[in-house]
Write the structure tokens for this entry.
Amino acid sequence: MSDPNTPYAIRTYDAETLKDALRKMFLIRKFEEGAEDSYTRGLIHGTMHLSIGQEASAVGSCMSLSDADKITSTHRGHGHCVAKGADLGRMFAEFFGKEDGYCRGRGGSMHIADVEKGNLGANGIVGGGLPIAVGAALSAKRLGTGAVTVCFFGDGANNEGAFHEALNMAAVWKLPVVFVCENNRYGMSTSTEKSTAVKHIADRASAYNMPGTTVDGNDFSAVAEAVDTAVAHARAGNGPSLVENLTYRWRGHSKSDRNRYRTKEEISDWMARDPILHMSALLVEHKVMSEADVAALETETAQVIQDAIAFANASPAPTAAEATRFVYTDGEAA
Amino acid sequence: MNMQNAPDIRELSYAEAIREAMDIALGSDERVVLMGEDIGVYGGAFQVTGDLIDKYGPDRVMDTPISELGGAGVAVGAAMTGLRPIFEFQFSDFATLAMEQIVNQAAKIRFMLGGAVSVPLVMRFPAGSGTGAAAQHSQSIEAWLGHVPGLKVIQPSTPEDAKGMLLAALEDPDPVMIFEHKILYKMRGPVPEGHYTTPIGKAAVRREGKDLTIVATSLMVHKALAAADDLAQNGIDAEVIDLRTIRPMDRDTVLASVRKTGRLICVYEGVKTLGVGAEISAMVAESDAFDYLDAPIIRLGGAESPIPYNPELEKAVVPQVPDILNAATELAQGRL
């Protein structure tokens, strides 16, 4: 395993860890497909933002995090939630607006959080989680917990003022936070070429005096290497980093998207670079798993999703009498 | 100050009272941090934090960059994860830059997450006109935030309350927004020693009276009390209520007073339309206290205008003592 040409993931993680990573990638893919199917069958009240095609970015970025470490997520956040260890049944229950959901049906797809596992929540505001992640890192530094915060955001957020303010403060205060940009090339319909003055978003790290790295976000090993390095840098007290994962969402921005801003060829080219196929091939090539093992994992995860959907369907809905519950901690109406 | 001062209670300025509250909080709770622009060695634009940095150091009295949105968001994230930040906006006007974090995040996170986490955040907003700082440094935007479920919004009017309500805000598990009128910072009054809390959501009857009720906020409480003294010389006995909290509003105290006096004037510095006075008026109109009204309700609020620079114009766009006096006299003499 000391061959320097051996990919980072194979050199670094044991077989169980690698299988679990692939399993999470399958779970994300199948969660999203299950979500889409539920939407098509009229079970979903609102909209959703699917991350099919971005699974390596979510899972690869959480490899060296424990439950004590935090993440902040985005409107396209289902994958981050799974990667941080969430229960699929509670995720679907939230998606269906049920009491057993992570937010007891009050948040829905755009606000799924799993505070016990360190997921401080998806966010409906582009860039909304960036300063919050810096705040979580400030707490970790002041309270001496040793925790690191991974802040997920998209290419769209890199043009929000909050991005620049957050990166600057994290660097000035040398806080343990890793900014992970999932550059899927479009902020809704507007491409990074049209919206962003730099070629690589990671180039913006130099403006805030922190390391910046751009990697193939569909290559699990490349993502894991970049983010593990950044997490170790943060944990050692050396401050923040910016990692840019180049990836692609196979589906539209949300359910209203007619895909008029990109070509079928572009989409099919990216689908040929499927991060799950890539990861499966890697593990088979290095004899971590057989093809039959991979197929079995896919079947097993499909069943997990079916069970999760059944759990969510059976979960009770919140009652209208409790519509304003949780506005205040003390429960008193203001 | 129109309050009776016990001879053995020392007096502090409103700014000193806030500083003392923050000193007590920093000294007793390691989780408390102060954040804001130039609150460190500069001592804050209004010298509220003063020399606290000398006692607690720059890690706990943190100068932020001029990044209101980011700074507010850092405070939100810190509050969610174990710290108790007190975030100072240099001027309340600058909070407009941070509305995203205040309104979309701080106010809603607990609700959106189904109660899985609270945001115990205190924010301080130096507010109001009268300093010649013109339209972008003189606003009273408390009603903006008062419109947001999930926030609590308070306006202490005395040094004693400034200290007690800040300490109460720190014990509150939810975000509390404190609007401090800049003209009050130098006002002196009795302040108890040590730790005490003044409840959020409770109004104070500052002067009892039987002829009419004046509900006022912040600096306007003092103008209302001055007007009430003049009114008393003309045989008009005004009750003055210091609302203290605009969200959640103390309905019981206001309605009880209106039932007693049958007349109501609301005095507040924020823009009159869609403001605090509209809410107080509606609260009365929707209740049984409406039946006790002997005259129309009067609202005295800020003009439909930005705050002008020229000092005479600046005075003209917010309620003054003669405005309250005239309105109260008309009301009490049954001319309305």
Chain A has one domain: 8-254+262-312.
